[in-house]
User: What shape does this take?
Amino acid sequence: MTNPEPIPATMRAMVLTGFGGFDKLEYRIDVPVPQPRPGEVLVKLGAAGVNNTDINTRIGWYSPAVEGSTAAGGASGFAETAGEGWSGEQFTFPRIQGIDAAGRIVAVGEGVSPERIGERVLVEPALRRDDGGVDFFGSERDGAFAEYAVAPSVHAHAIVSDLSDVELASFPCAYSTAENLLHRSRVAYGERVLVTGASGGVGSAAVQLARRRGAFVTALAGTSKHRAVEDLGADEVLDRHAPLEADYFDAVIDVVGGPGFGSLLGALKPGGRYAVSGAIAGPVVDLDLRTLYLKDLTLLGCTALDDGVFANLVGHIERGEVKPLVCATFPLERIEAAQRVFLEKRHVGKIVLTIDPTA
Assistant: This one.
């Protein structure tokens, strides 16, 4: 391992100690700084985004035993959780969460060129293992809610940008998820696309990225957020409970789920594609199989990123083809306040935690 600057022995970190409420988040100043293993890099973090997955993991929402919306257990957790994490495997504690990481490489492990030291990087959220499985940054591996984190070198993507670390930290999870949804559903120029939850992190990213592809974008959002979503490039914005025209859309990009699921399928044209990566309104839905097979629909679940998706996103950022949408920042130690604001769902865009005060 090569070190260009002194690396402290301990660091500040927010540690998740178990499933439950905000009391399971412990701010510590004596956590050992991780050491990069072969093929890994050590990243000094400037900022980290706040995401649904951080809250969902804390409250145990990923367990199949939980059927409520994320908001129902956002503050206190779900007593019925059986312990599964985002990957479906049993979650282990303690864990440093945080899937959105922006910072710079300060040390490298064996087999990684020391020339990487000093690079500004974004960490790809889905870390492919040699056995074909996937670990998620901040879930199966410690993440960005700390001053330092290690990541596989191949998943630490160099980025050249004038944006701040706070702005860059708004991109990794939400924008790569949105790009993956659009990629898998093969959204193309001139198609009509419906985006649910368009004021949130993934939804607002999907609006921008679908417009970048030349699609006609209809967005669903609360009435008070229509102007902000229009400013992102949506061609039209409807209230999230508005009736939808039948057989109208080529693709639906959904992060909401819940009771509106049936109407989303009804709004798809024959041969349409439905892609989902979230279910904040509830994970258990009613599906009329006749709608699915008589309309020849394709349903796509999207979590792990396809090859090239994150690298493409980095290119979009460097060329200024997408813009950061940061609505609020909080220091790391105020993560409870940040998550409470997040759960209120009054914001548009991303909430970001500052790790390095100079970021």
